[in-house]
Write a structure and sequence with these properties.
7 helices; 260 residues; alpha+beta; 56% strand; 13 strands; 13-stranded antiparallel sheet
């Protein structure tokens, strides 16, 4: 994951972040993130769910992700990541465990893709679950941009291509609590393998309109947190922003639990 060593030394603390995603000015999604750091260990959980008008008029969705691991002199070492998604009344869980350069997966319910949708071992190698992949960017600090991150959610292998396009002062970006300039990056995707709902031509069109994300430093570490996003789609403009950012020390029990 390539995190700077300076970002890996963490006090025993918890960070809670809330995000809002809007579509054409209307409430769409809420994302709540809880990240625990304790010395050489991290454990991060997120929940994504619909709210407002989108929740009222579209299919139910609730997604939960978790990623945990440790740090070494070479950077962060992801141990595992998982996701649990409910779309309508259909739940799906998936867990990926990393070790020795390989990924071990478990699906519930069992997943047997068709031959054309199968992700090969070679395509799987080096990929990370969505939350671990996102953490790999933020943990890289000032080097967050100009990289390609290999993601895998158990059904789809996608390359996320991140390119730095500039910086912006915190005051101009309108991100309360941000320290120094924000990194501005454009993010696009490339399909590698797996099962996709959209037609290939539609996906290619979306890649021509990359998402723009602002990464801010919000605490005393070198980590960069996504603070704003903007994407122009055929359905209107999608915008995201931080609603709140809080940190507190871990309790002794919480610290002990992370070390088990």
């Amino acid at each position: 994951m390539g995190a700077p060593v300076a970002a890996s030394a963490q006090d025993a603390r918890q960070v809670d972040i809330a995000y809002e995603i809007t579509f054409a000015g209307l409430s769409g999604f809420r994302i709540d993130v809880t990240a625990k750091f304790n010395g050489a260990n991290y454990d991060v959980e997120s929940r994504t769910f619909k709210e407002g008008l989108l929740r009222a008029v579209t299919m139910h969705y609730d997604g939960r992700n978790r990623a945990w691991g440790g740090f070494s002199t070479q950077g962060a070492r992801p141990a595992a990541g998982s996701l649990s998604i409910v779309v309508g009344d259909k739940p799906r869980t998936w867990i990926a465990q990393y070790g020795g350069g390989t990924m071990q997966e478990q699906h519930n319910p069992a997943y047997k893709p068709s031959p054309q949708n199968t992700i090969s071992d070679e395509q799987r190698r080096g990929s990370l679950d969505p939350l671990s992949a996102a953490l790999s960017v933020g943990m890289a600090g000032d080097a967050a941009c100009d990289r390609t991150v290999q993601t895998n959610d158990g059904k789809r292998r996608i390359d996320v291509i991140i390119r730095k396009v500039g910086t912006e002062p915190a005051a101009k970006a309108g991100v309360p609590g941000a320290q120094g300039d924000l990194l501005i990056c454009e993010i696009s995707t490339k399909r590698i393998a797996g099962e996709f709902d959209e037609a290939p031509k539609e996906a290619e069109a979306e890649r021509d309109r990359p998402m723009r994300v602002w990464f801010a430093r919000l605490d005393q570490t070198q980590m960069r947190y996504p603070a704003k996003l903007e994407a122009h789609t055929g359905f209107g403009t999608i915008r995201g922003r931080i609603l709140s950012f809080r940190e507190r020390p871990l309790t002794p029990d919480e610290s002990q639990a992370m070390r088990k």
